[in-house]
Amino acid sequence: MPTIGASAATLAACDPTGALDLAGELSLIKKAAAKEVSANISCSQDTSCSIWADFCRDLTCDPLLQDVADPLPLLQIFANRYRVGTLAPSHSPVKSRMVEAALRAIGQTIAALGYRDPRLHPSGKLDLHLHRQLQAYMKEDPPPTQVKPIPLTNNSSFSFTMLSNPRPQAKCHWTHDHPWFLFPSPPRGICIH
Q1: pLDDT for 59 beyond 60
Q2: pLDDT tens readout for residues 132-154
Q3: H helices within 44-192, ranges in order?
Q4: Integer Cα distance of 120 and 6 in angstroms
Q5: How far apart are CA 78 and CA 90, in angstroms?
Q6: How far apart are CA 143 and CA 133, in angstroms?
Q7: What whole-number distance in Å separates Cα of residue 155 and Cα of residue 28?
Q8: Distances from the Cα of 169 to the Cαs of 111, 179, 192, in angstroms?
Q9: What's the whole-model pTM score?
């Protein structure tokens, strides 16, 4: 889908009298698309976009950010308020992945309408300031509550390596420091203190 921002160059290549008619028509198309997006965002199932639309309405700016010269500070403020729970659907602090998902939903919704995704540089990479903000949130997140178990194959290969060690001191030292709860009984020839 061609971007609407590229329309000025297209109109410049046209006949001047025809370009005036096209410019008016293009203006009407942009207004209709903006109204449709505002209606879709406010009535959408995606809570992030509806929260974004409310946020922009409170600031009296366009949810598509077409009237904003630098949309990045607005995205950063939105991300911070979403993170601390002021704008989050649960009204409680959320983890960094939720903030990232909300920003992605907003950016992709805007991009789906032919406008530039405000999170991304023209190269397609996430803006550095926004990236650093999300990284800081990730570092502040608490560790996961569920601990990943060590796969049994790792335990058996480690045990085999230790048991095949030719030095008896290493075997005794290892069995003393590590419990044998992974095995029904200690292997033969191992000294347990």
Answers
A1: yes
A2: 999 999 999 988 777 666 665 55
A3: 47-58, 72-84, 96-112, 128-140, 152-163, 168-177
A4: 17
A5: 15
A6: 18
A7: 67
A8: 65, 17, 11
A9: 0.56
